Amino acid sequence: MAGPLTVGVVAETAPGERRVALVPKLAARLIGRGLRVVVEPGAGRKAGLPDELFTAVGAELGAESSCGDAADSRRSDIVLTVTPPSEEDIARLPAGTVLIGFLDPLGDPARVEALERAGITALAVESIPRVSRAQAMDALSSQANVSGYRAALLAAQLSPRFFPMLTTAAGTVPPATVLVLGAGVAGLQALATAKRLGARATGYDVRPEVAEQVRSVGAQWLDLGIEAIGDGGYARELTDDERAQQQRRLTEAIAGFDVVITTALVPGRTAPTLVTAEAVRGMRPASVVVDLAGATGGNCELTEPGENVDVGGVTISSPLNLPAGMPLHASELYARNLVELIELLVDSEGRFAIDPADEIVAGACVAGLPEEVA
Amino acid sequence: MAGPLTVGVVAETAPGERRVALVPKLAARLIGRGLRVVVEPGAGRKAGLPDELFTAVGAELGAESSCGDAADSRRSDIVLTVTPPSEEDIARLPAGTVLIGFLDPLGDPARVEALERAGITALAVESIPRVSRAQAMDALSSQANVSGYRAALLAAQLSPRFFPMLTTAAGTVPPATVLVLGAGVAGLQALATAKRLGARATGYDVRPEVAEQVRSVGAQWLDLGIEAIGDGGYARELTDDERAQQQRRLTEAIAGFDVVITTALVPGRTAPTLVTAEAVRGMRPASVVVDLAGATGGNCELTEPGENVDVGGVTISSPLNLPAGMPLHASELYARNLVELIELLVDSEGRFAIDPADEIVAGACVAGLPEEVA
């Protein structure tokens, strides 16, 4: 009989990445279910989680690499990662490994093909279907929560204004006005955070049914009179006419705000332009744009991905990995998502029990037929 | 008859300084009172206030320097500055100029002597007495409000944790715990901002009478059982025994917090040590200390002024000029303070009417007898 399944935790190597795919208290939960947990040395260090915290709950430290490296006696059956594996990483994974993490299947199909060729069963958290059973596994949402919160903090830090109204003996400073474009999880969290800080927050989305959610966090709804509802809760792409009309009205509206935070993403597609160069020119000096869509081209026409630029006194900031800036809680939320998914894959004895017909498994699995694992 | 008094606005040259001593809408107020306002070109640029906004309200742009330079025909009777003038700046000021700004009279008495020798009437905003008539001129308070707000934002940005409690489908993240040491204007604003962001905020001060103010912003009061009330609303220095007892109890308390923000300043003195090296060692990894007292040695023993340092996973940040990071509103609040003071110095014809017996004038004036001006 084989021993219990081993779960390996990768030390992330992507530049600027500070998250880790498992945290000690969730390692303890897996160990409590009879699994072994092997953590690559230093994997949690940048998240404020030194190795001792992992070994204290019974996790082991990998000798060299726990990422399924054949040279490591403790090669893992399940490998957890935050960022997608490089070609080298994939070459080191033995066939039959179950890999779970952000794998960017729509953005980088070549990687998925490489995983398929290597005989890896790859479960992409991006591909978990948005069904209620899978809510606790929704890593896109958990990390979007972090992004939205950090985006509002970043905007407050970049703005030369107070977000809250301030009353002093010499008079009153009015609250900052913040417009958030895109009212998904990140947008709603950005609205809620700006509102908490005391700003006047306003939300906009092409899906009119989210107006109620925008209002529920205390923000106002910006009604431009254009609707575009698509599949899976995402916005569909607008027609050319709709887009032109939207941009004209948005450009007018944007001029009235001190801060604009954009969060409009269409999976696997270039981000829609919502803030044109003309709109930026219409903003007052000392205004701020924070664009969360920089990795897929940006929602602002003048965004330079990963940079802060000054255009006529308007600061345009394009942070590329906001969750990495808050690695402890971002990792904890992510690890909860992964552990929920792992618990769907193993039985009470700590052995694989993968149901390839399960819609969550079938949806998440972007390479390697689950039938081969079961 | 002489023409109306001229108020000159300096373009700040201190490294990192982005504030300006007057903003357009308050320039308009002075002009409305019959004064001329001359702004050094570019003075407001880094605060998001281009020259056009000043000229639009009737201010003039200085030909070379409006800082009283004798070579400038538009030499000013009253010169407004944010940061203290350099030796060179002082050499360029004609005798008889009234200089108003942060002049650091306690920290740099040599500068005050140089101003005296140069025949400048120097009004230091730090020396304005804390009487109710002078509340609207209280630049220390207005800038401390900015510092406290920015300190809480900085702490939130440095912390790898959410400040608010977050409830997700995969579970709940508890709110961050924030301890603010020193409950003056900056401390209270830091508490209020941390609380707004959703953290559990706790305040401490050696003056027990501020407990009520701490509670009024929604924070808890940390009672260590040590009191030290001094003159002018500042804390007196503690005795050695009191200090030892305070540090022991504080060190124990600090270990329980995710974030510590220190704001304990004693004017003209080295800042008291409140967070010892031992206390930092007692904090959990991924904790954060933001020390606002870095310019006078720091409240944390391991502070390196102007730097972010990592000590065993604890980040210690010592920002030196937080108001400069929010230059638009910091400048606006500061300008209101200065305009209130100027209005005390001029009559309804826009001419000097300085009453040397006025307690505000007498207190603020650190060089140059006002009798000579009147």
UniProtKB/TrEMBL annotation, chains A, B:
Coiled coil: none annotated. Residues 156-318 form the Alanine dehydrogenase/pyridine nucleotide transhydrogenase NAD(H)-binding domain. InterPro entries: AlaDH/PNT_N (IPR007886), AlaDH/PNT_NAD(H)-bd (IPR007698), NAD(P)-bd_dom_sf (IPR036291). Its EC number is 7.1.1.1. Keywords: NAD, NADP, Nucleotide-binding, Translocase. Residues 8-147 form the Alanine dehydrogenase/pyridine nucleotide transhydrogenase N-terminal domain. The keyword NAD applies. It is an enzyme of class 7 (translocase). It comes from Prauserella halophila. The transhydrogenation between NADH and NADP is coupled to respiration and ATP hydrolysis and functions as a proton pump across the membrane. It catalyses: NAD(+) + NADPH + H(+)(in) = NADH + NADP(+) + H(+)(out). The keyword Cell cycle does not apply. CDD domains: Rubrum_tdh. This is proton-translocating NAD(P)(+) transhydrogenase. It holds the Pfam family AlaDh_PNT_N.
